[in-house]
């Protein structure tokens, strides 16, 4: 009866999936993104002066809430959690760099969520996302793939340096056990994929973790522990400090980056899952509601803005096609409040092969771009390249939209530019002029 209810609500059979596959996909997505529950509290405590235990609990709760809403309301296999990049902007740039108190920064987070929620209710966000040109939709998917590849290689010990440090961009230490475990895990996934064996990604993660344990490369911290003391931040948010030009600029940046980052992930992951219909996302309003609500909750509970996670592509590649995948992620984030010591046993390089494999799959989409039309290919290429090299999905989208407008205008094709593209490109230009990179 319960399985029948799940099937009917999430349309699992209709999507060509099964409850078992959706659960497996949810576990896969969670394992590739659970690093956030360790990284986010440490960053906000160190740079913003927040209580690490409170941020830990807030991160788990907000990720659980956002993923639950994404799964139940929008019924997409996409998880939500505090965004890497946005948390750095929150802690390093705003709190440490601009000397803004974290209570004011949390209030700005909450307000940005309310603004995005209103934009979604009036279908302004829907119009923006559906207004992305087809070539840029494909480029976003491929760019996210390269972004994942960069994350995977960095996890594997392959550093990326600038021009001033050419030696930093190398193959890393191929003599290390970790590097060989990454190679082994990646090959295992490929072989299982070729022979159509189920559970390739999760098998790789668990087997690499087991081998690392046998080689004494990871430490066992126990199975369970009570969560730390938690003091919700909603009673401490300081809205009185928002009425300045600098803080209004911060709210604008939060909204713009969150909108573009989540839009890019939604389009890219949904495209990979085959969920786009005529180039558009059905139930988009529910997806935007889920993320906006999670952002508001993040400000109230005590963490930085949330985004749709590009690691959801790993779950999609494991077969996830419905919201049940996101609901499973929600349950695992709740469990993390008590089983975080066990999660620490899974080394980050155990999930690296999964991200690298998913990156390869997402790069397949570039074949759909019309490479004969230079006015389409240049913005697409800039989108693809800028995402990994600027370490930001949002910056890749900005490069694509701005170059799309410039090239179309210079080639006499300005009529092909939609109002959405004009507006988004203009907002990014204003952001770069007045607020910098």
Describe the structure.
It is a single chain. The chain has 437 residues and is an all-alpha fold. 68% of the residues lie in helices and 1% in strands. It has helices at residues 2-10, 19-33, 36-48, 52-74, 86-97, 102-121, 124-130, 134-155, 177-194, 200-214, 245-273, 284-301, 312-317, 323-343, 348-363, 374-390, 393-410, 419-435, and strands at 80-82, 306-308. A two-stranded antiparallel ribbon has the order 1-2. Helix 2 (19-33) crosses helix 14 (323-343). The termini are far apart. Residues 161-168 have low confidence and may be disordered.
Radius of gyration: 21 Å
Low-confidence stretches: 161-168
Query: How far apart are the termini?
Result: 54 Å
Based on helices, strands and strand pairing, what is the structural class?
A: mainly alpha
Shape: globular
Strand ordering within the main sheet: 1-2
% residues in beta strands = under 5%
Order of helices and strands: HHHHEHHHHHHHHEHHHHHH
Number of strands: 2
| pLDDT averaged residue by residue | 87
- Helical proportion? 55-70%
Largest sheet: 2 strands, antiparallel
Number of helices: 18
């Amino acid at each position: 009866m319960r399985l029948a209810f799940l099937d009917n609500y999430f349309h699992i059979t209709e999507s060509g999936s099964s409850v078992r596959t959706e659960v497996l996909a949810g576990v896969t997505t969670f394992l590739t993104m659970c690093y956030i529950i360790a990284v986010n509290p440490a960053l906000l405590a160190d740079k913003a002066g927040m209580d690490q235990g409170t941020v830990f609990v807030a991160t788990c709760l907000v990720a659980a809430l956002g993923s639950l809403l994404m799964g139940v309301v929008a019924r997409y296999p996409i998880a939500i959690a505090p965004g890497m990049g946005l948390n750095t902007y929150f802690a390093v740039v705003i709190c440490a760099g601009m000397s803004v108190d974290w209570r004011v920064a949390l209030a700005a987070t909450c307000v940005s969520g309310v603004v995005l929620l209103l934009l979604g209710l009036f279908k302004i966000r829907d119009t923006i996302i559906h207004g992305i040109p087809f070539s840029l939709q494909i480029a976003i998917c491929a760019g996210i793939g390269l972004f994942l590849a960069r994350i995977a290689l960095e996890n594997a010990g392959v550093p990326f340096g600038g021009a001033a440090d050419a030696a930093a961009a190398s193959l890393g230490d191929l003599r290390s056990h970790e590097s060989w475990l990454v190679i082994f895990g990646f090959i295992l996934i490929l072989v299982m994929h070729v022979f159509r064996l189920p559970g390739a990604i999760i098998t790789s993660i668990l087997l690499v973790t087991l081998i690392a344990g046998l080689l004494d490369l990871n430490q066992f911290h126990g199975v369970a522990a009570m969560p730390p003391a938690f003091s919700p931040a909603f009673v401490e948010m300081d809205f009185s400090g928002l009425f300045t030009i600098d803080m209004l600029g911060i709210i604008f940046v939060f909204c713009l980056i969150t909108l573009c980052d989540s839009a890019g992930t939604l389009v890219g992951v949904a495209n990979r899952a085959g969920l786009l219909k005529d180039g558009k996302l059905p139930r988009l309003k529910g997806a935007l509601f889920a993320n906006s609500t999670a952002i508001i909750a993040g400000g109230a509970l005590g963490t930085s803005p949330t985004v749709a996670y590009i690691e959801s592509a790993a779950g999609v590649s494991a077969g996830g096609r419905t919201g049940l995948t996101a609901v499973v992620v929600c349950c695992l984030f709740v469990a993390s409040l008590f089983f975080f010591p066990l999660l620490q046993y899974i080394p980050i390089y155990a999930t690296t092969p999964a991200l690298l494999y998913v990156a390869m799959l997402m790069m397949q989409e570039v074949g759909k771009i019309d490479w004969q039309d230079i006015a389409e290919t240049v913005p697409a290429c800039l989108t693809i390249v800028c995402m990994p090299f600027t370490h930001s999905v949002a910056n890749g989208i900005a490069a694509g939209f701005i170059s799309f407008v410039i090239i179309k205008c210079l080639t006499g094709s300005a009529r092909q530019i939609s109002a959405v593209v004009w507006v988004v490109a203009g907002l990014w230009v204003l952001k770069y002029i007045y607020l910098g990179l």
